[in-house]
Amino acid sequence: MKPKYILENYDRILKEIKNPKIIFSNDLTPFLENFASGSFLIYQVDFIKQDSTTKYIVKKPIHNVHPKVSKVNFKGVDIAEEFKPFIPKILDELNIQENQISLRWCSKNENTLYLMQECEIEDLSQENRFFLYCYHSLKNENQKIKKINKERVFKLKSKKRIEQYIHRKQYILENLAHRLVKEINPINSSDLYQFSNNYDKINCLKITHIYLEKLLRFIEKEYRNYLNVNIQIPNRSTLVKEFEITNKLKEVKSRLLVSNINNQLLKLAYEPLLKIATINIQEKLTYYEFNYCSEFIKALYKQINFADMSEETIKECLFHLNFNSLQFFKYLTFEISQELETQENNIKKIDVLYRFLKNYNQKQSRNILKYKANLPSLKEQIISWIEEEIEYLTKKIKLEANQFTNGTNNDEKIKFLTSLSVAQLSCFFGLLMETGIIKHKNQTDVFRFISENFKTNNTEKISVASIKVKYYNVENSTKKALREKIIELLDLTKF
Questions:
Q1: Pair 401, 423 in one domain
Q2: Of 3, 79, 188, 471, whose CB is crowded by the most CB atoms within 10 A?
Protein backbone atom coordinates (compact mmCIF):
# COMPACT_ATOMS: atom_id res chain seq x y z
CA MET A 1 0.00 0.00 0.00
CA LYS A 2 1.32 3.45 -0.95
CA PRO A 3 2.35 5.53 2.13
CA LYS A 4 0.19 8.52 2.97
CA TYR A 5 1.43 11.92 1.77
CA ILE A 6 3.42 13.33 4.71
CA LEU A 7 2.19 16.94 4.38
CA GLU A 8 -1.47 16.32 3.71
CA ASN A 9 -2.58 18.30 6.78
CA TYR A 10 -0.07 21.07 6.01
CA ASP A 11 -1.71 21.50 2.60
CA ARG A 12 -5.14 21.60 4.26
CA ILE A 13 -4.05 24.32 6.70
CA LEU A 14 -2.47 26.34 3.87
CA LYS A 15 -5.77 26.21 1.95
CA GLU A 16 -7.52 27.52 5.07
CA ILE A 17 -4.93 30.31 5.44
CA LYS A 18 -5.45 31.40 1.84
CA ASN A 19 -9.23 31.22 2.24
CA PRO A 20 -9.96 31.83 5.96
CA LYS A 21 -13.71 31.95 5.37
CA ILE A 22 -13.56 28.16 5.29
CA ILE A 23 -12.56 28.06 8.95
CA PHE A 24 -14.05 31.35 10.22
CA SER A 25 -17.50 29.77 9.96
CA ASN A 26 -16.46 27.17 12.56
CA ASP A 27 -16.23 27.67 16.30
CA LEU A 28 -12.54 27.30 17.20
CA THR A 29 -13.10 27.83 20.93
CA PRO A 30 -13.48 24.13 21.91
CA PHE A 31 -10.33 23.29 19.95
CA LEU A 32 -8.23 26.01 21.67
CA GLU A 33 -9.58 25.17 25.13
CA ASN A 34 -7.77 21.82 24.87
CA PHE A 35 -4.40 23.53 25.15
CA ALA A 36 -4.76 25.49 28.42
CA SER A 37 -6.47 25.04 31.78
CA GLY A 38 -7.38 28.75 31.78
CA SER A 39 -7.65 31.68 29.38
CA PHE A 40 -5.91 35.00 29.95
CA LEU A 41 -4.06 37.82 28.21
CA ILE A 42 -0.45 38.61 29.10
CA TYR A 43 0.73 42.24 29.02
CA GLN A 44 4.47 42.86 29.19
CA VAL A 45 5.49 46.07 30.98
CA ASP A 46 9.11 47.20 30.62
CA PHE A 47 10.31 49.83 33.13
CA ILE A 48 13.10 52.09 31.87
CA LYS A 49 15.24 54.02 34.34
CA GLN A 50 16.85 57.22 33.02
CA ASP A 51 18.77 59.36 35.48
CA SER A 52 16.29 60.09 38.27
CA THR A 53 13.15 59.28 36.28
CA THR A 54 11.37 56.03 35.46
CA LYS A 55 9.31 55.41 32.32
CA TYR A 56 7.40 52.35 31.20
CA ILE A 57 6.31 50.73 27.93
CA VAL A 58 3.30 48.41 27.74
CA LYS A 59 3.45 45.94 24.84
CA LYS A 60 0.49 44.48 22.99
CA PRO A 61 -1.00 41.53 24.90
CA ILE A 62 -0.70 37.91 23.80
CA HIS A 63 -2.94 35.03 24.77
CA ASN A 64 -1.56 32.30 27.02
CA VAL A 65 -1.73 29.72 24.18
CA HIS A 66 0.36 31.99 21.86
CA PRO A 67 3.71 30.49 20.66
CA LYS A 68 5.67 33.37 22.27
CA VAL A 69 4.43 32.38 25.75
CA SER A 70 6.86 29.45 25.84
CA LYS A 71 9.71 32.00 25.89
CA VAL A 72 8.21 34.10 28.70
CA ASN A 73 10.05 33.69 32.00
CA PHE A 74 8.03 34.85 34.99
CA LYS A 75 7.71 34.14 38.67
CA GLY A 76 5.09 35.07 41.26
CA VAL A 77 6.96 37.38 43.64
CA ASP A 78 6.16 40.68 45.28
CA ILE A 79 6.48 43.67 43.02
CA ALA A 80 9.38 46.05 43.71
CA GLU A 81 8.34 49.02 45.85
CA GLU A 82 9.71 51.55 43.35
CA PHE A 83 7.34 50.29 40.62
CA LYS A 84 4.14 49.92 42.73
CA PRO A 85 3.00 53.56 42.20
CA PHE A 86 2.88 52.97 38.44
CA ILE A 87 0.43 50.04 38.59
CA PRO A 88 -2.83 52.03 39.04
CA LYS A 89 -1.90 54.34 36.17
CA ILE A 90 -1.10 51.37 33.91
CA LEU A 91 -4.39 49.65 34.76
CA ASP A 92 -6.27 52.86 34.13
CA GLU A 93 -4.66 53.24 30.70
CA LEU A 94 -5.57 49.65 29.86
CA ASN A 95 -9.07 50.04 31.34
CA ILE A 96 -8.59 46.98 33.55
CA GLN A 97 -9.88 46.50 37.11
CA GLU A 98 -7.30 45.50 39.73
CA ASN A 99 -9.37 42.43 40.74
CA GLN A 100 -9.16 41.18 37.12
CA ILE A 101 -5.38 40.79 37.07
CA SER A 102 -2.50 38.98 38.69
CA LEU A 103 1.11 40.15 38.57
CA ARG A 104 4.19 38.18 37.65
CA TRP A 105 7.78 39.34 37.71
CA CYS A 106 10.27 38.41 34.98
CA SER A 107 12.78 35.90 36.35
CA LYS A 108 15.55 37.14 34.03
CA ASN A 109 14.95 40.90 34.05
CA GLU A 110 14.11 42.76 37.26
CA ASN A 111 12.69 45.67 35.22
CA THR A 112 10.02 43.64 33.38
CA LEU A 113 6.55 42.97 34.79
CA TYR A 114 3.75 40.78 33.39
CA LEU A 115 0.04 41.57 33.87
CA MET A 116 -2.21 38.50 33.59
CA GLN A 117 -5.83 39.37 32.73
CA GLU A 118 -8.50 36.70 32.64
CA CYS A 119 -10.48 36.57 29.41
CA GLU A 120 -12.73 34.39 27.31
CA ILE A 121 -11.39 32.79 24.14
CA GLU A 122 -14.57 33.95 22.43
CA ASP A 123 -13.51 37.54 23.08
CA LEU A 124 -10.42 37.15 20.92
CA SER A 125 -10.68 38.34 17.31
CA GLN A 126 -11.37 35.79 14.60
CA GLU A 127 -7.92 36.41 13.15
CA ASN A 128 -6.26 35.82 16.53
CA ARG A 129 -8.17 32.58 17.11
CA PHE A 130 -7.37 31.39 13.61
CA PHE A 131 -3.63 32.10 14.13
CA LEU A 132 -3.67 30.14 17.42
CA TYR A 133 -5.58 27.35 15.66
CA CYS A 134 -2.84 27.15 12.96
CA TYR A 135 -0.11 27.12 15.60
CA HIS A 136 -1.55 24.28 17.70
CA SER A 137 -2.72 22.28 14.67
CA LEU A 138 0.79 22.35 13.21
CA LYS A 139 2.38 21.58 16.57
CA ASN A 140 0.17 18.49 16.94
CA GLU A 141 0.71 17.51 13.32
CA ASN A 142 4.50 17.59 13.74
CA GLN A 143 4.29 15.15 16.65
CA LYS A 144 2.23 12.76 14.52
CA ILE A 145 4.57 13.04 11.52
CA LYS A 146 7.65 12.39 13.70
CA LYS A 147 6.05 9.27 15.14
CA ILE A 148 4.98 7.99 11.70
CA ASN A 149 8.45 8.66 10.29
CA LYS A 150 10.16 6.70 13.04
CA GLU A 151 7.79 3.75 12.53
CA ARG A 152 8.32 3.71 8.75
CA VAL A 153 12.11 4.01 8.95
CA PHE A 154 12.20 1.23 11.53
CA LYS A 155 10.47 -1.10 9.05
CA LEU A 156 12.97 -0.35 6.28
CA LYS A 157 15.72 -2.94 6.43
CA SER A 158 18.43 -1.60 4.11
CA LYS A 159 20.47 1.59 4.18
CA LYS A 160 19.61 2.28 0.54
CA ARG A 161 15.84 2.17 1.19
CA ILE A 162 16.20 4.42 4.25
CA GLU A 163 18.23 6.91 2.18
CA GLN A 164 15.59 6.92 -0.56
CA TYR A 165 12.85 7.50 2.00
CA ILE A 166 14.70 10.33 3.80
CA HIS A 167 15.69 11.98 0.50
CA ARG A 168 12.05 12.04 -0.63
CA LYS A 169 10.97 13.63 2.66
CA GLN A 170 13.77 16.22 2.44
CA TYR A 171 12.71 17.13 -1.09
CA ILE A 172 9.02 17.49 -0.16
CA LEU A 173 9.76 19.59 2.93
CA GLU A 174 12.39 21.77 1.24
CA ASN A 175 10.12 22.39 -1.75
CA LEU A 176 7.24 23.57 0.43
CA ALA A 177 9.58 25.66 2.62
CA HIS A 178 10.89 27.42 -0.51
CA ARG A 179 7.33 28.17 -1.68
CA LEU A 180 6.42 29.59 1.73
CA VAL A 181 9.45 31.90 1.81
CA LYS A 182 8.45 33.27 -1.62
CA GLU A 183 4.90 33.93 -0.39
CA ILE A 184 6.05 35.51 2.90
CA ASN A 185 8.70 37.59 1.11
CA PRO A 186 10.58 38.49 4.33
CA ILE A 187 12.90 41.48 4.61
CA ASN A 188 15.66 39.26 6.05
CA SER A 189 16.17 35.90 7.77
CA SER A 190 15.09 37.06 11.23
CA ASP A 191 11.87 38.53 9.80
CA LEU A 192 10.71 34.96 9.11
CA TYR A 193 10.37 34.36 12.85
CA GLN A 194 8.78 37.64 13.95
CA PHE A 195 5.01 38.06 14.29
CA SER A 196 3.00 41.27 13.98
CA ASN A 197 0.04 42.10 16.21
CA ASN A 198 -2.63 41.88 13.52
CA TYR A 199 -2.56 38.06 13.11
CA ASP A 200 -2.94 38.27 9.34
CA LYS A 201 -2.24 35.77 6.56
CA ILE A 202 1.53 36.44 6.66
CA ASN A 203 1.68 35.58 10.39
CA CYS A 204 -0.10 32.28 9.68
CA LEU A 205 2.32 31.50 6.83
CA LYS A 206 5.27 32.28 9.14
CA ILE A 207 4.11 29.87 11.84
CA THR A 208 3.62 27.24 9.11
CA HIS A 209 7.17 27.83 7.86
CA ILE A 210 8.56 27.60 11.41
CA TYR A 211 7.01 24.19 12.01
CA LEU A 212 8.02 22.99 8.57
CA GLU A 213 11.61 23.83 9.45
CA LYS A 214 11.20 22.01 12.76
CA LEU A 215 10.40 18.88 10.74
CA LEU A 216 13.47 19.41 8.58
CA ARG A 217 15.57 19.92 11.69
CA PHE A 218 14.15 16.69 13.16
CA ILE A 219 15.16 14.74 10.05
CA GLU A 220 18.57 16.41 10.07
CA LYS A 221 19.25 15.37 13.67
CA GLU A 222 17.66 11.89 13.64
CA TYR A 223 18.87 10.72 10.23
CA ARG A 224 22.06 12.70 9.58
CA ASN A 225 23.79 9.63 8.07
CA TYR A 226 21.07 9.29 5.43
CA LEU A 227 20.68 12.94 4.38
CA ASN A 228 20.90 14.22 0.85
CA VAL A 229 23.88 16.55 1.36
CA ASN A 230 23.13 18.47 -1.86
CA ILE A 231 19.88 19.89 -0.51
CA GLN A 232 19.78 23.37 1.01
CA ILE A 233 19.99 23.72 4.78
CA PRO A 234 16.76 24.99 6.36
CA ASN A 235 17.07 28.63 7.34
CA ARG A 236 16.57 27.99 11.07
CA SER A 237 19.15 25.16 11.03
CA THR A 238 21.56 27.51 9.37
CA LEU A 239 21.10 30.09 12.08
CA VAL A 240 21.54 27.50 14.85
CA LYS A 241 24.66 26.02 13.34
CA GLU A 242 26.07 29.41 12.46
CA PHE A 243 25.70 30.46 16.09
CA GLU A 244 27.77 27.47 17.17
CA ILE A 245 30.77 28.62 15.14
CA THR A 246 30.30 32.39 15.26
CA ASN A 247 33.02 33.01 17.87
CA LYS A 248 35.51 30.79 16.05
CA LEU A 249 34.71 32.55 12.77
CA LYS A 250 35.35 36.01 14.26
CA GLU A 251 38.65 34.90 15.81
CA VAL A 252 39.93 33.28 12.61
CA LYS A 253 38.99 36.33 10.50
CA SER A 254 40.72 38.76 12.84
CA ARG A 255 43.88 36.61 13.11
CA LEU A 256 44.12 36.25 9.34
CA LEU A 257 43.77 40.00 8.80
CA VAL A 258 46.67 40.84 11.13
CA SER A 259 48.91 38.07 9.76
CA ASN A 260 51.73 38.67 7.28
CA ILE A 261 50.47 36.34 4.56
CA ASN A 262 50.13 37.73 1.02
CA ASN A 263 46.81 39.06 -0.26
CA GLN A 264 46.27 36.27 -2.77
CA LEU A 265 46.58 33.51 -0.15
CA LEU A 266 44.51 35.57 2.30
CA LYS A 267 41.72 35.84 -0.27
CA LEU A 268 41.76 32.07 -0.81
CA ALA A 269 41.64 31.29 2.92
CA TYR A 270 38.83 33.80 3.34
CA GLU A 271 36.56 32.23 0.72
CA PRO A 272 34.96 29.50 2.93
CA LEU A 273 34.75 31.98 5.84
CA LEU A 274 32.73 34.41 3.74
CA LYS A 275 30.33 31.66 2.65
CA ILE A 276 29.33 31.25 6.31
CA ALA A 277 29.55 34.91 7.28
CA THR A 278 27.34 36.13 4.42
CA ILE A 279 24.57 33.52 4.63
CA ASN A 280 21.23 35.11 3.88
CA ILE A 281 17.75 34.05 2.89
CA GLN A 282 18.50 34.33 -0.84
CA GLU A 283 21.86 32.56 -0.78
CA LYS A 284 21.65 29.42 1.30
CA LEU A 285 24.23 26.66 1.48
CA THR A 286 23.79 22.96 0.94
CA TYR A 287 24.51 20.54 3.79
CA TYR A 288 27.71 19.55 1.96
CA GLU A 289 28.93 23.15 1.59
CA PHE A 290 28.06 24.05 5.15
CA ASN A 291 29.72 20.93 6.60
CA TYR A 292 32.95 21.66 4.73
CA CYS A 293 33.01 25.37 5.66
CA SER A 294 32.27 24.55 9.31
CA GLU A 295 35.10 22.01 9.45
CA PHE A 296 37.35 24.49 7.67
CA ILE A 297 36.70 27.18 10.29
CA LYS A 298 37.16 24.77 13.21
CA ALA A 299 40.45 23.46 11.78
CA LEU A 300 41.83 26.98 11.17
CA TYR A 301 40.72 28.01 14.65
CA LYS A 302 42.65 25.08 16.11
CA GLN A 303 45.64 25.93 13.95
CA ILE A 304 45.88 29.55 15.07
CA ASN A 305 45.95 28.48 18.70
CA PHE A 306 48.96 26.20 18.26
CA ALA A 307 51.02 27.76 15.51
CA ASP A 308 51.99 31.05 13.93
CA MET A 309 49.84 32.27 11.07
CA SER A 310 52.60 32.07 8.48
CA GLU A 311 52.08 31.48 4.76
CA GLU A 312 53.55 28.01 5.04
CA THR A 313 51.29 26.95 7.93
CA ILE A 314 48.21 28.31 6.11
CA LYS A 315 49.15 26.44 2.90
CA GLU A 316 49.70 23.23 4.86
CA CYS A 317 46.37 23.67 6.59
CA LEU A 318 44.50 24.30 3.32
CA PHE A 319 46.12 21.24 1.75
CA HIS A 320 45.21 19.06 4.72
CA LEU A 321 41.61 20.32 4.50
CA ASN A 322 41.50 19.30 0.82
CA PHE A 323 40.77 22.85 -0.28
CA ASN A 324 40.58 21.78 -3.95
CA SER A 325 39.54 25.06 -5.57
CA LEU A 326 41.06 25.73 -8.98
CA GLN A 327 42.42 29.03 -7.67
CA PHE A 328 44.40 27.32 -4.91
CA PHE A 329 45.59 24.67 -7.39
CA LYS A 330 46.85 27.47 -9.67
CA TYR A 331 48.47 29.18 -6.68
CA LEU A 332 50.49 26.07 -5.74
CA THR A 333 51.46 25.14 -9.31
CA PHE A 334 52.55 28.75 -9.98
CA GLU A 335 54.96 28.48 -7.04
CA ILE A 336 56.42 25.31 -8.55
CA SER A 337 56.66 26.96 -11.99
CA GLN A 338 58.56 29.88 -10.49
CA GLU A 339 61.15 27.56 -8.99
CA LEU A 340 61.47 25.70 -12.32
CA GLU A 341 62.31 28.95 -14.11
CA THR A 342 65.40 29.35 -11.92
CA GLN A 343 66.87 26.01 -13.15
CA GLU A 344 69.56 25.90 -15.85
CA ASN A 345 68.20 23.03 -17.94
CA ASN A 346 65.36 20.52 -18.28
CA ILE A 347 67.22 17.76 -16.43
CA LYS A 348 67.50 19.95 -13.33
CA LYS A 349 63.84 20.94 -13.74
CA ILE A 350 62.85 17.26 -13.70
CA ASP A 351 64.93 16.77 -10.56
CA VAL A 352 63.01 19.63 -8.85
CA LEU A 353 59.68 18.19 -10.00
CA TYR A 354 60.53 14.76 -8.54
CA ARG A 355 61.33 16.48 -5.23
CA PHE A 356 57.90 18.16 -5.25
CA LEU A 357 56.24 14.89 -6.30
CA LYS A 358 57.78 13.05 -3.35
CA ASN A 359 56.77 15.86 -1.00
CA TYR A 360 53.13 15.92 -2.12
CA ASN A 361 52.83 12.13 -2.18
CA GLN A 362 53.86 12.04 1.48
CA LYS A 363 51.47 14.83 2.56
CA GLN A 364 48.31 13.86 4.43
CA SER A 365 45.02 15.17 3.11
CA ARG A 366 41.35 14.49 3.82
CA ASN A 367 39.73 12.21 1.28
CA ILE A 368 36.07 12.16 2.26
CA LEU A 369 35.40 15.88 2.58
CA LYS A 370 36.60 18.34 -0.06
CA TYR A 371 35.75 21.95 -0.92
CA LYS A 372 34.53 21.33 -4.49
CA ALA A 373 32.58 18.08 -4.64
CA ASN A 374 32.74 17.92 -8.47
CA LEU A 375 36.55 18.25 -8.70
CA PRO A 376 39.34 15.74 -7.90
CA SER A 377 41.05 16.11 -4.55
CA LEU A 378 43.78 18.74 -4.30
CA LYS A 379 46.40 16.03 -3.89
CA GLU A 380 45.26 14.31 -7.10
CA GLN A 381 45.28 17.61 -9.02
CA ILE A 382 48.81 18.57 -7.92
CA ILE A 383 50.34 15.11 -8.41
CA SER A 384 48.72 14.77 -11.84
CA TRP A 385 50.08 18.20 -12.86
CA ILE A 386 53.62 17.38 -11.66
CA GLU A 387 53.57 14.01 -13.46
CA GLU A 388 52.44 15.68 -16.67
CA GLU A 389 55.22 18.25 -16.39
CA ILE A 390 57.78 15.49 -15.84
CA GLU A 391 56.47 13.56 -18.84
CA TYR A 392 56.50 16.68 -21.00
CA LEU A 393 60.08 17.60 -20.07
CA THR A 394 61.25 14.00 -20.52
CA LYS A 395 59.79 13.90 -24.03
CA LYS A 396 61.29 17.30 -24.75
CA ILE A 397 64.75 16.06 -23.75
CA LYS A 398 64.37 12.98 -25.99
CA LEU A 399 63.13 15.11 -28.89
CA GLU A 400 66.03 17.54 -28.51
CA ALA A 401 68.42 14.58 -28.44
CA ASN A 402 66.91 13.12 -31.62
CA GLN A 403 67.03 16.48 -33.33
CA PHE A 404 70.70 16.79 -32.45
CA THR A 405 71.41 13.24 -33.71
CA ASN A 406 69.53 13.59 -36.99
CA GLY A 407 70.66 17.15 -37.58
CA THR A 408 67.28 18.05 -39.00
CA ASN A 409 63.87 18.64 -37.56
CA ASN A 410 61.17 16.11 -38.13
CA ASP A 411 58.15 17.20 -40.08
CA GLU A 412 55.49 18.70 -37.88
CA LYS A 413 52.79 16.22 -36.90
CA ILE A 414 49.52 16.61 -38.79
CA LYS A 415 46.65 17.79 -36.58
CA PHE A 416 42.93 17.69 -37.36
CA LEU A 417 41.31 21.13 -37.60
CA THR A 418 37.97 21.24 -35.75
CA SER A 419 35.27 23.92 -35.73
CA LEU A 420 34.66 23.16 -32.05
CA SER A 421 36.22 25.38 -29.39
CA VAL A 422 38.66 23.89 -26.88
CA ALA A 423 35.89 23.91 -24.24
CA GLN A 424 33.42 22.18 -26.60
CA LEU A 425 36.03 19.61 -27.67
CA SER A 426 36.86 18.78 -24.02
CA CYS A 427 33.15 18.45 -23.18
CA PHE A 428 32.56 16.21 -26.23
CA PHE A 429 35.32 13.78 -25.26
CA GLY A 430 33.95 13.83 -21.72
CA LEU A 431 30.57 12.67 -23.09
CA LEU A 432 32.29 9.92 -25.14
CA MET A 433 33.96 8.60 -21.97
CA GLU A 434 30.87 8.96 -19.80
CA THR A 435 28.70 7.01 -22.28
CA GLY A 436 31.33 4.28 -22.70
CA ILE A 437 32.05 5.00 -26.39
CA ILE A 438 35.63 5.60 -25.27
CA LYS A 439 36.50 3.04 -22.57
CA HIS A 440 40.03 4.18 -21.82
CA LYS A 441 40.20 4.77 -18.06
CA ASN A 442 43.18 7.13 -17.88
CA GLN A 443 41.78 10.64 -18.40
CA THR A 444 45.26 12.13 -18.73
CA ASP A 445 45.90 9.97 -21.82
CA VAL A 446 42.70 11.30 -23.39
CA PHE A 447 43.69 14.92 -22.60
CA ARG A 448 47.08 14.27 -24.22
CA PHE A 449 45.45 12.66 -27.28
CA ILE A 450 43.28 15.75 -27.83
CA SER A 451 46.30 18.03 -27.39
CA GLU A 452 48.46 16.09 -29.87
CA ASN A 453 45.85 15.48 -32.60
CA PHE A 454 43.52 18.48 -32.72
CA LYS A 455 43.73 22.17 -33.40
CA THR A 456 41.02 24.86 -33.51
CA ASN A 457 40.53 27.99 -35.61
CA ASN A 458 41.97 30.04 -32.75
CA THR A 459 44.43 27.63 -31.15
CA GLU A 460 47.21 25.82 -33.03
CA LYS A 461 48.62 24.12 -29.93
CA ILE A 462 46.12 23.11 -27.27
CA SER A 463 47.76 22.59 -23.86
CA VAL A 464 46.87 19.59 -21.71
CA ALA A 465 46.31 21.93 -18.74
CA SER A 466 43.76 23.98 -20.72
CA ILE A 467 41.86 20.84 -21.75
CA LYS A 468 41.84 19.56 -18.17
CA VAL A 469 40.46 22.81 -16.71
CA LYS A 470 37.69 23.00 -19.31
CA TYR A 471 36.94 19.27 -18.93
CA TYR A 472 36.12 19.67 -15.21
CA ASN A 473 34.44 23.09 -15.48
CA VAL A 474 31.86 23.03 -18.27
CA GLU A 475 29.90 26.25 -18.80
CA ASN A 476 26.23 26.26 -19.78
CA SER A 477 27.00 28.07 -23.06
CA THR A 478 29.44 25.26 -23.97
CA LYS A 479 26.80 22.59 -23.26
CA LYS A 480 24.24 24.48 -25.36
CA ALA A 481 26.57 24.85 -28.38
CA LEU A 482 27.65 21.20 -28.22
CA ARG A 483 24.04 20.04 -27.91
CA GLU A 484 23.20 21.86 -31.16
CA LYS A 485 26.06 20.05 -32.95
CA ILE A 486 24.92 16.67 -31.59
CA ILE A 487 21.37 17.39 -32.82
CA GLU A 488 22.87 18.05 -36.29
CA LEU A 489 24.55 14.64 -36.12
CA LEU A 490 21.28 12.97 -35.14
CA ASP A 491 19.50 14.65 -38.06
CA LEU A 492 22.08 13.18 -40.47
CA THR A 493 21.20 9.65 -39.28
CA LYS A 494 17.59 9.96 -40.51
CA PHE A 495 16.57 7.80 -43.49
A1: no
A2: 471
